[in-house]
Design a protein that fits this description.
Layout lengths: L27 E6 L10 E7 L2 E9 L4 E4 L7 E2 L7 E7 L5 E6 L10 E5 L7 E2 L15 E6 L6 E5 L2 E5 L7 E2 L9 E4 L5 E4 L9 E4 L7 E2 L18 E3 L7 E5 L2 E5 L7 E4 L14 E8 L2 E8 L3 E7 L13 E3 L1 E2 L4 E6 L9 E6 L2 E4 L6 E5 L11 E9 L4 E8 L3 E5 L14 E6 L3 E2 L7 E6 L3 E5 L6 E2 L3 E2 L2 E2 L12 E2 L5 E5 L9 E5 L7 E5 L3 E13 L2 E15 L4 E11 L6 E4 L10 E3 L6 E3 L1 E2 L7 E5 L4 E5 L7 E2 L3 H5 L8 E2 L19 E2 L1 E6 L7 E5 L4 E4 L7 E2 L9 E8 L2 E6 L4 E10 L5 H4 L2 E5 L12 E6 L3 E7 L2 E7 L4 E5 L6 E4 L5 E3 L14 E7 L5 E7 L20 H5 L11 E6 L12 E7 L7 E5 L2 E6 L7 E6 ...
Parallel strand pairs: 26-30, 31-35, 63-68, 66-70, 67-69
Antiparallel strand pairs: 1-63, 2-3, 3-4, 4-5, 6-7, 7-8, 8-9, 10-11, 11-12, 12-13, 14-15, 15-16, 16-17, 18-19, 19-20, 20-21, 22-23, 23-24, 24-25, 27-28, 28-29, 29-30, 31-32, 32-33, 34-36, 36-37, 37-40, 38-39, 41-42, 42-43, 43-44, 45-46, 46-47, 47-48, 49-50, 51-52, 52-53, 53-54, 55-56, 57-58, ...
Family: Belongs to the glycosyl hydrolase 74 family.
Protein name: Exo-alpha-sialidase
Keywords: Carbohydrate metabolism, Glycosidase, Hydrolase, Polysaccharide degradation, Signal
Length: about 1000
């Protein structure tokens, strides 16, 4: 019987599919936590223990906000009432009053940065208005370390404008200066003594002191090594002795110091102790002095490991003996950041919780050994996931998921993220590359850059399985001959390309290609400009042949006014029979510059390429502050109507920020731009159906389009997922979302519909009873319909539908109301489990099972059969196949815009990879420099040397990368006029073994 005979069944379905409708029906989108069950929880910066209850603690994570435990650290919950996520410190003032500090780069009114206060034990939080700042600096008010004077209870906070002070338990604040000193750390002692430290490279002194409660300040003689003129002053670098009012301690990488005269003079007290296998780590240095019956115990963190030093009091003096042995602890993750102690009871002062880049650790033996706690299902989920990627194994109907986690590995899941078995691919990494579909496990090829140290690697499915006879498990990727300066990008299964630099006798700068997994390489494209990130893939159809198209971000210039790079695009199009790609530099008319999504060290450039229309691009423009679109391959751009306002919440958030949000802890607080970061942090098209497009943001959640970017909606409550780094579409209505500090999330779209009548206009359909006799039409008030797939089975418990088995990439729609279901993907018919009658469907000839009808209790009683799969989108209204173009587009070529002006390049030397680590030698080359001019090299605003080009305008010199982690800018300018000639940005990352 025809479906039209029955009224309202499962509407879900057809709202999308009506030929008469040019717009798809609305989809209800939800974003829920989907945290991987890993042993790690992510970077924790500060721990605060309730002074009257050791079991209650707060933790300020680096970029995931605050977390709270009430059972001593076993279980944690996120504090959603704090409107900030780049948190630095948290501290108890009393058992009920807490303070937290944070930075905010994007809200116009600095809604998140500065000081937060709670007067109800951390249940609710209020943002303290920024104090009157004044002064010559034009920085946002950021706050970092918190310190409370032990005698007066006055509170001091290190801020971007100096040291702020409160004398009323944090209710009101004044900045007590100095207003031009961007403080990172602060420590208050009895008797109005206060010291503060900065990592700002503009200041010759790194530690200042006040003996009148912050009213006036003076420099100290804190040692500044000649070889390292900017000692990185960490968040917890300063501490006051609990036994002597004139004694302070400090950490100045890599050493520890003491002052016994109120901070005036300093001396080294502890020989540098072991950093473990690393020689430079990514944690936060700290000093924690505790009083003991015989003197002090100093707990020391050197960014890598934690140790203690017992310092007995010297008889007859107020001084302490620091000559004893340094006793190191062991932990299951290093890069230490903070440590806390019990605040009451007979074991007051005993070590309680350790914070590292890996997460949180507990000890059962007084701090000798530390083990991870609280992560995964236990709630401390502050993982900084820089990337999520997935692939379908078609013959298994399995979706493999891969994530790259800063500090904590690259992980693979063979069951869609339900489990994450070891081993992972390395301490951390980036650039996970594979095809979206593989016929079988043996066909799967995955490449990744695994760091510790960084190398390119290749493996089979979930890293551990075998790829044919080529390799078993994860192994070294065969890079192109010459310096390794790029990462492999997957074009087809065994066809990859990779960035290369000039290599005599081998390659010109640009790309090399391999069709045999690295066994042989040939030149693929010549691109003289500096590459940024890796290419993004699309396709085009010419003369019945589908050709790969890639867009690569390149540095085309430098904006001296804004002090950051100008990044545009180059297009590479395979153009047979030639083995070389056509290289075209789009005009970029109406577009200023591509921006950066700034994980700590893995910078992704933010633009999206339609996978089936290589001329369709979407990108936030960091120069003009708009979200733009091109339909001609990047030559001409226009703003997407209404989207910029929607994404920025009508101007509540800036469209871009000019300084790194990581200006906390170990990262520098420079007063000038170090790159430009768009508020829209990621753009992603669904590879199978580009009608689905998503844009992630820094603070305003996720935005989705179902018509290829023409119209957009915000996913409700998605602002909980802050600092979105990537989006991976499993189906057109299901995606995984990674964040920098809030872990992994799952985006799901579904419909709730009321009429199925138009369905049968698209597909001939029949409704049959699961039991005897066809059901009456008025009973079809609830149900499920699937798009782009079919139902293979179901599981019923207690008479209600609990699980649905569908083919891969199926999307769901509900009739009447949504139903909570477990979804299983399979290619095998399972039937219905849990009811006695008709456990398997006898499919009518030429029909697919695409819907189920339920009664009000959720019990099944009807089945919907259609003549084919129900389309999610009206294909006549929105094209979904690969766009066809003529040969002119494929053969389009032109000259690089960088060849007509002075241009510099930076490359790491002797490292075999394009990562820059502390104090690495960097090769600076310049072309077309002014002839005969004396040139000045400027790093982060400070001149570091002079040079000049030869007669042809070529220069080459070696400089040393800074020791400070994070973003940096190098410019070459005329030494006499100070006019900037060109500049480039780079990132220094910590060195993992």
């Amino acid at each position: 019987m025809k479906c039209q005979m029955y009224s309202a069944l499962f509407l879900a379905v057809v709202g999308f599919a009506l030929p008469a409708q040019s717009q798809p029906s609305p989809i209800d989108w939800t974003l829920e936590k989907f945290q991987p069950n890993l042993p790690y929880g992510g970077r924790a910066d500060t721990i605060a223990v309730n002074p009257s209850d050791n079991r209650t603690m707060f933790v300020a994570s680096e970029s995931g906000g605050l977390f709270k435990t009430t059972d001593g650290g076993t279980h944690w919950s996120h504090v959603d009432t704090l409107g900030a996520y780049y948190t630095s410190a948290v501290a108890y003032v009393t058992s009920d009053i807490l303070l937290a500090t944070a930075t905010d780069r994007f809200s116009v009114r600095n809604e998140g940065g500065g000081i937060w206060r709670s007067s109800d034990g951390g249940v609710t939080w209020s943002h303290i208005p920024s104090p009157s700042l004044g002064g010559p600096r034009d920085l946002r008010f950021d706050a970092r370390e918190i310190s409370i004077a032990p005698d007066t209870g006055d509170i001091f906070v290190a801020t971007s404008y100096g040291v702020a002070k409160s004398s009323d338990q944090g209710a009101s604040w004044i900045v007590r200066g100095p207003i031009n000193f961007a403080a990172i750390s602060v420590s208050a002692q009895s008797g109005n003594l206060v010291i503060a430290g900065s990592n700002d490279s503009r200041f010759s002194t790194k530690v200042i002191r006040s003996d009148d409660g912050g009213a006036t300040w003076a420099a100290t003689n804190f040692p500044v090594p000649v070889s390292f003129p900017v000692p990185v002053f960490d968040l917890h670098a300063l501490a006051a002795s609990p036994l002597d009012a004139n004694t302070f301690y400090a950490y100045g990488d890599p050493d520890f110091f003491v002052s016994e005269d109120g901070g005036v003079s300093w001396s080294k007290i502890v020989p540098t102790f072991s950093r473990g296998p690393q020689d430079f780590c990514g944690g936060i240095g700290f000093v924690k002095p505790l009083a003991t019956p015989t003197g002090l115990t100093l707990w020391l963190g050197n960014r890598c490991t934690v140790a203690k030093l017992v310092a007995p009091q010297i008889p007859g003096t107020s001084r302490f003996d620091y000559s004893g042995p340094v006793i190191q602890s062991t932990a299951d993750h290093w890069d230490t950041r903070d440590i806390s102690f019990r605040t009451q009871g007979p074991d007051t002062g005993a070590p309680l919780l350790l914070a590292t880049d890996g997460g949180l650790h507990r000890t059962l033996d007084g701090g000798v050994n530390w083990t991870l706690t609280g992560s995964g299902p236990n709630g401390y989920n502050a993982l900084q996931i820089t990337e999520v990627k997935g692939q379908w194994i078609d013959n298994l109907a399995k979706y493999d998921l891969y994530i790259a986690v800063q500090d904590n590995g690259i992980w693979a899941s063979g069951d869609g993220g339900m489990t994450w078995p070891p081993p992972n691919a390395g301490p951390e990494g980036l650039n996970i590359e594979m095809q979206k579909h593989f016929p079988s496990p043996a066909d799967s090829v995955v490449t990744v850059t695994a760091c510790g140290p960084c190398t390119n690697k290749v493996g089979g499915r979930v890293f551990s399985q075998t790829y044919g006879a080529a390799f078993s498990g994860l192994h070294q990727w065969p890079d192109p001959p010459g310096p390794v300066v790029g990462h492999p990008t997957s074009i087809f299964k065994s066809f990859h390309d990779q960035g290369v630099d000039d290599t005599p006798g081998k390659f010109l700068k640009g790309f090399a290609a391999t069709h045999d997994l690295g066994s042989s390489w040939t030149q693929y494209a010549v691109v003289p400009a500096e590459r940024r990130d890796i290419p993004k893939l699309s396709a085009i159809r010419v003369a019945h042949r589908q050709l790969p198209v890639q867009y690569q971000a390149i540095r085309t210039g430098f904006d001296a006014t804004r002090n950051f790079e100008i990044v545009h695009l180059v297009r590479l199009t395979m153009s047979p029979p030639s083995t070389m790609a056509s290289v075209y530099f789009p005009a970029m008319n109406g577009f200023g510059g591509i921006g950066i999504s700034p994980p700590d060290w893995d910078w992704h450039h933010v633009f999206g390429v339609d996978p089936k229309d290589s001329q369709h691009l979407i990108a936030p423009d960091v120069i003009n502050g708009k979200i733009m679109e091109s339909h001609d391959g990047g030559d001409n751009w226009s703003e997407i109507p209404g989207l910029t306002s929607l994404v920025t919440d009508a101007g509540r958030f800036q469209s871009g920020a000019g300084a790194s949000p990581f200006n906390i802890g170990i990262f520098p607080a420079f007063p000038f731009d170090l790159g430009h970061f768009p508020f829209a942090s990621h753009v992603s098209f669904s590879g199978d159906d580009p009608n689905s497009v998503a844009i992630g943001t820094q603070q305003n959640g996720l935005f989705v389009s179902r018509d290829r970017g023409a119209t957009w909606i915000k996913v409700p409550n998605s602002e909980r997922a802050t600092a979105i780094t990537s989006i991976d579409w499993m189906s057109p209505t299901d995606a995984f979302v990674s964040t920098l500090g809030r872990g992994l999330w799952k985006l799901t779209g579904s419909q709730v519909v009321t009429s199925v009548r138009p369905l049968c206009v698209i597909q001939s359909c029949r409704i049959k009873s699961i039991f005897k006799g066809d059901p009456s039409p008025d009973r079809f008030k609830r149900g499920i319909v699937v798009f782009e797939g079919e139902i293979m089975g179901a599981r019923v418990e207690a008479g209600a539908l609990r699980e649905l088995s569908v083919t891969p990439q199926t999307s769901l729609a509900f009739v009447g109301a949504p139903v909570k279901l477990a979804i299983r993907y399979t290619n095998q018919r399972i039937g219905i489990i849990g009811i006695e009658t008709n456990k398997t469907f006898a499919l009518p000839s030429g029909r697919l099972l695409t819907g189920l009808a339920m009664d009000e209790r959720g019990g099944l009683f009807g089945a919907l059969y259609t003549s084919g799969r129900i389309p999610l989108s009206d294909k006549s209204a929105t094209r979904r196949d690969v766009r066809t173009a003529d040969a002119r587009f494929v053969l389009q070529q032109n000259r690089s815009p960088t060849l007509s002006k002075p241009y510099i390049s930076l490359s790491a030397t002797g490292k075999g990879m394009d990562n820059v680590e502390p104090e690495d030698p960097l090769t600076l080359t310049g072309e077309r420099m002014p002839s005969g001019a004396v040139l000045e090299i400027v790093l982060d605003g400070s001149a570091i040397g002079k040079t000049e080009g030869d007669r042809s305008g070529f220069l080459k010199t070696i400089i040393k990368a800074p020791r400070e982690l994070g973003p940096h800018t190098l410019i070459v300018r005329d030494a006499n006029t100070k006019r900037t000639i060109d500049g480039a940005s780079f990132v220094v990352r910590h060195r993992d073994a």
